[in-house]
Amino acid sequence: MKTGKNLKSSIVSGLSLLANSVGVSIDKIVRETGVSLTSLLDNDARVSELGLHRLLTLIDKALPGKAGILELAKRIPPSLFGKEVALIFQASTLEQAMLLWANYYDLLSDSIEVELIDSKNHLAVRIHHPLDETDQGIGGDLALAVKYRFICDYFGAQAV
Q1: Is there a smaller number of Cβ atoms within 10 Å at the N or the C end of the chain?
Q2: Max alpha carbon distance in the chain (Å)?
Q3: Which of 48, 54, 66 is closest to 28 using CA atoms?
Q4: For a pLDDT cut of 70, what percent of the chain falls above it?
Q5: For 22, which DSSP code?
Q6: What is the mean predicted confidence (pLDDT) over 3-31?
Q7: What pLDDT, on the 0 to 100 scale, is given for residue 65?
Q8: Which residue has the higher pLDDT, 6 or 48?
Q9: What DSSP string describes 67-124?
Q10: Which of 138, 140, 133 is CA-nearest to residue 64?
Q11: What pLDDT, on the 0 to 100 scale, is given for residue 57?
Q12: Distances from the Cα of 142 to the Cα of 5, 38, 42, 76, 118, angstroms
């Protein structure tokens, strides 16, 4: 897995605040993720994805079980992902939003792979991230739950 600085820090800082709201101290987050407090406060910084993996592990321990991660997904605001999500919300259709997301997701993380599979009847998305193998799917579960919620909030539940 890559451990270079290749993830937008606003994601880690926002998730750190949410982790703190469920009882994980900021000191513990900084100590165990390896992400400095300075980086957590700088939304334009790039941080190690290993820090995200470690943070998701801390969150999973604070909220055991998949239901905890799904509850966390309900609390994540679109602003956590910055301007990239605002761009997606400019789309007039779900398909346009998915195309924008697939084309610009690397602004958030340069390790993610996103592929749109377009058929006559549906649009499928294949997502792979190096953390998939190392965090037992916690990050993937959280990401999919958040995306599903954003789609329902913006386009309505009938769009999915």
Answers
A1: C
A2: 51
A3: 54
A4: 94
A5: T
A6: 85
A7: 66
A8: 48
A9: HHHHHHHHH--GGGGTHHHHHHTT-SSHHHHHHHHHHHGGGTBSS-EEEEEE-SS-EE
A10: 138
A11: 84
A12: 21, 25, 23, 10, 24
Report the alpha-carbon distance of residue 81 to residue 69 in Å, rounded: 17
Instruction: Tell me the average pLDDT across 5-31.
Output: 88
Q: For residues 73 and 141, what is the distance between their CA atoms, to the nearest angstrom?
A: 9
Say which amino acid occupies 80.
L
Mean pLDDT over all residues of the chain? 82
The CA distances from residue 136 to 51, 64, 82, 83, 96, in Å, are 15, 13, 26, 29, 31
Q: Give the C-alpha separation, 110 to 5, whole Å.
A: 9
If one counts every other C-beta atom within 10 angstroms of the C-beta of residue 122, the result is: 7
CATH number of the domain bearing residue 24: 3.90.1520
Q: Is the whole model's pTM more than 0.85, yes or no?
A: no
Q: Which of 77, 45, 43, 71 is nearest to 59 (CA)?
A: 71
The number of folded domains in the chain is 1
Q: Which domain, by its residues, includes 45?
A: 5-159
